[in-house]
Amino acid sequence: MSVISHSSDLMRARRFPEGFLWGTGTSSYQIEGAVTADGRGRSIWDVYAHTRGNVFRGDNGDIACDSYNRLQDDLRIIKDLGVGAYRFSVAWSRVQPTGSGAVNQAGLDYYRRLAEQLRENGVQPVVTVYHWDLPQALEDQGGWANRDTAQRMAELALILGAELGDQVSMWITINEPLQTVHQGYRTGTHAPGLCDDALAAAANHHILLGHGLVLQALRQTTGAGTVIGPTMDPDPYVALDAESEAVAETLDAEFNLVYLDPVLRQRYPESARPEMLPPEALIRDGDMELIGAPIDFLGVNYYRPHHIRRGDWSDLRIGEEPVPGFPGFVHYQAPEQERTVMDWPVVPASLRDLLGRLHAYTDGLPLYITENGCAADDYVSPGGTIDDYERIAYIHGHLDAAADAIADGVNLAGYFHWSLMDNFEWSHGYRRRFGLHYVEFETGRRVPKRSAGFYGNVARTGTLPSWEETFPLDGPMPSASTTPAAV
Ligand code: IFM
Fold first, then answer.
1. Of 127, 147, 105, whose CA–CA distance to 28 is shortest?
2. Alpha helices, H only, 83-147
3. Which atom of ligand 1 is nearest to the CA of 418?
4. 322 Cβ neighbours under 8 A, 6+ residues apart
5. Count: domains in the chain
């Protein structure tokens, strides 16, 4: 990834609105470790990661960032960073080791301590109820293909609402249902690792039902002023030629609207192919009303767009990959396209378009960017610093695009950088580093990267400095003097 400007105006600083929420985030399995501590039960990720061939190099989350045992260190880096909010998720199997029934108090206490201490440090806790680590005991009964799992998640939400409701005023019901359904049940590249379209279609409906039931449970157990919404990852699908427009539209329906439409329109999209939709028989009376009950905000995770064009599958060109199910069409990335080490194209302008689209689609509902970030080949320099200038450039470009969206009139209320620290990047294991803090996995030491100093400054001041000021032609590189201390 090269360090180039995305800003339309190199000299322009951008001021964000008063009250704009600046945050960062993580998820339980990606950082906590301590997988057998204090009565935690097994999750599908424990099992999946320990199955040979599923995760790069056989990495797993057994230790991860050891956040369960390093709570004080993490509170310290969050505080030093200067953000106003921290988004974390609950490991269901810490709270209910088998996914239902009795509460494991020690597990629940961990999240209570975390929420309380964040607040004591002036940081707003934002809780994601479900970020992919389903208790294995529930998977053994069919996981998300089983309707009952949605009811079980509502029970979890009742527990969390009652226990944490006085500390937490912003809740995310589910994170990226697309990935649970598509990678978990269709392609098998995430836990539970199944490849079955029928199970995926059922999981699609049940995880959305889970969202609706969690919303209901949190409304019952939390007080006025609490805001609740789901987080989706609606990657834009962009057609590069006229013939590809219909394909891009179908992909948008099958990857995005199939989650958004039920929540915001109480229906599944007609433009998706029938085999990609939950069968009618699974949709019971009242389901769509539950799923589509009013939400307070929409969380948006944005990393990349997809470009679609015509392409010959028997003679693929550089940058082309077949679009599964659509012979003659390819995903395309121009060779000169700037990409992250995930091979994801860096296109901040697409974030502006997406936010504009969602603003219109949701009729002006508050939007939060609940994730945005990049993996990079970070390393500790001989001087002990992590000079991740490409991450600073990435943040700059995307915040500039977010500021453009606000100027367009989009009701964007906050931005959470992914992630607080390097962590277990699912099937990529530890080789993909997304953090503002470098984690030395051998020792657990957290070292702020240059980007932590840069982003913290933006969060504290509510102002994105101009590109010129961020990367001056002469003078020190960014944040050289503001990077916080390691723990
Ligand atoms: O690390 C993940 C996160 O858990 C969900 N959204 C995408 C991130 C980067 O792949």
1. 127
2. 92-95, 105-120, 136-139
3. 8
4. 311, 313, 316, 329, 330, 331
5. 1
Q: Say how many Å lie between the CA of residue 474 and the centre of ligand 1.
A: 36
* Residue 224 DSSP label: T
Q: State the catalytic residues.
A: 176, 371
> Which mutation among 419, 420, 431, 439 tests ligand 1's pocket best, with the greatest number of atoms within 8 A of CB?
419
Cβ contacts of 42 within 8 Å, gap of 6 or more = 35, 93, 135, 136, 137
Where are any strands of DSSP class E within 184-267? 227-232, 237-239
Quick check: is 9 in a domain?
A: no
Q: How far is the CA of 188 from the centre of ligand 1 (A)?
A: 16
Q: Is residue 485, in this structure, part of any structural domain at all?
A: no
pLDDT for residue 277? 97
**475 in a structural domain:** no
pTM, to two decimals: 0.96
**DSSP string for 310-361:** E--GGGPPTTEEE-TT-TTEEEE--TT--B-TT--B--HHHHHHHHHHHHHH
Instruction: Give me ligand 1 centre to Cα 425, in Å.
Output: 7
Question: Whose CA is closest to 268, among 248, 289, 288?
Answer: 288
Q: How confident is the model at residue 4 (pLDDT cuts 50, 70, 90)?
A: very low
Residue range of the domain that includes 129: 14-470
Pocket lining for ligand 1, CB < 6 angstroms: 27, 30, 176, 301, 371, 418, 425, 434
Which tens digit of pLDDT belongs to each residue from 130-186?
999 999 999 999 999 999 999 999 999 999 999 999 999 999 999 999 999 999 999
Question: Is residue 340 in a domain?
Answer: yes
Q: Could you tell me the CATH number of the domain that includes residue 337? A: 3.20.20.80
